[in-house]
Amino acid sequence: MTEYTSPTRSELLKVKAQRKLAQKGHDLLKRKRDALIRIFFEKIKEYKRLKQSTLEGLKIAFETLQIAQGVSGVNRVKGLAFSSNPSFDIIASEKNLMGVRVPKFDIKEKAVELNASMIGTSFQVEESRERFIKLVPDLVRLAEVEQVIFTLAEEIKKTKRRVNALEYIKIPELAATEKKIKDQLAEIEREAFVRLKNVKQKMERAAAEEAKSAM
């Protein structure tokens, strides 16, 4: 419960200002929460769409790989795979999304260095390699969107807790304190009015008695 030292006008203004500030913060957090939820579901849709297309691409790539292994031999294909250097560098960073720091993955393509001869291998080997290389950006993007979804989900939970704390605890407490101070100030004013009235009546009686004595 919000505490205050005494029912004064300055304390009433202070509590009223706190309530207005809490209400403003509540409204801003609600808008942020709603925006994050909207982005969250957009990312879910993107993730589902990207996952489906990536899985389809992987299925075709693995089918091509199996054909390549059948034609050129499993050991030959493995040897070529291990003899090549990575074709991409993945650079991890962060970006700002509605005040939330979310992961961002950038891909930098590199020249392919193959430390083995392709002579004697079937064209399916090269086709398989190309298919897998083309899928790398989608796989990286899929990982990025997945991490963004997790990050947004956690932020939405935190924002919801803050909105609920303001809406159901802080703002009602401040409103109750404000009402209590107003009621106490009104009671003080009534008591002061009664005291003044009594003093006035006493003064009037005293003046009447003094007038009688002077006659």
Structure report:
By secondary structure, this protein is mainly α. The protein has a single domain, classed as Helix Hairpins, CATH 1.10.287. 77% of the residues lie in helices and 9% in strands. It contains three helices and two strands, in the order H-H-E-E-H. The chain has helices spanning 9-72, 74-83, 123-214, and strands at 88-97, 100-109. A two-stranded antiparallel ribbon has the order 1-2. Helix 1 packs antiparallel against helix 3 (123-214). The longest helix has 92 residues, at 123-214. The chain is rod-shaped, with a radius of gyration of 38 Å. It starts with 8 loop residues before the first helix and ends with a helix.
Give structural attributes.
Helix Hairpins, two-stranded antiparallel ribbon, 215 residues, 77% helix
